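Fold in tokens:
===
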Amino acid sequence: MTTVGQIMTRHVITIAMDEPLSRAREILSDHGIRHLVVLDQGRVVGIVSDRDVLATLSPYAVSDLTARPQDLATLAKPVHQFMTRRPISVNSSTPVDEASRLMVEHTISSLLVVDDHRLVGIVTSKDLLRLSAGLAPADEESPDADADERPPPERDSEISASEPEGE
């Protein structure tokens, strides 16, 4: 039985909850990822996806030169206003079929992986597709690979003592 811990991305890229949405968009683009874990003083408080960012902006917001004034105002707001609070999580020993079921049931494309109240990874729909196709997990690929999650700057985060929703 394959577990989430065997296929998850261990290097989770994060953003502070008070950072502007423009910074989230920049990080997502620069790292070629679709999910950012949102932290408040090292504690996971939410997750924001590329789709969350896109849904808040007009099609003109591809650059600051073409963005409308309301897009620029939106991009200046803190990321916590756009994140999903209390993201669903699993632990590293969760079977991948259970993780898949949760993602389908909740119509989401990622799950945080938490062991002993500590964020240890993220599993995405792309990780599950890699497994299904017999491909190596994203963490085992070369740096030039089109991975869903790329290693961040050295950073560690803790989950608060309360269990995240979905545990």
Notes: Helices lie at 4-7, 21-31, 50-56, 69-75, 96-105, 125-132. Strands lie at 14-16, 35-40, 43-49, 84-85, 89-90, 110-115, 118-124. The first helix runs from residue 4 to 7.
